[in-house]
Amino acid sequence: MVENNAIKIILMFIRSVNRSEPHLKVLRIVLTILTNLTLWPDTADKVFYAENAVDVFVELLQNNRENYDLFSATAKLLIALCQTPEHCKSVNGMKKSVERIRGFSDMLSNKIKIHTLSSSRAVKGGEALDHLNKQLVLIKQLMQLLRAHQ
Prior knowledge:
9 helices
């Protein structure tokens, strides 16, 4: 798979998907495949160093910030890719991506604050609030990895 440019093709696919349900279903599968590839150091390196991979994943976070499953799967993929100091240092060199990741933390914190302050939403939006909190935990975990290897 890796030798046949599959990762490059997968990244091109990710950039081309729309928000239709069939595309989102395939995207979930693709994220699972990529996450599985991070279980082995040599294939994790292939995923990480594929052209624009981190940018694609950060863009995917942005595009799916309202979709709990895809946002969480993408954040978990980035966390898996940032398990080595070398990868973290590379990401830290991508200033725009790091700023966007920080922006997700701020955005999620603000959404949680709004949901918490609004008693009617807090009652009706229990699951939504739970999802926001879980997303924030993932982004903070990613940020912590990046800070540890600046």
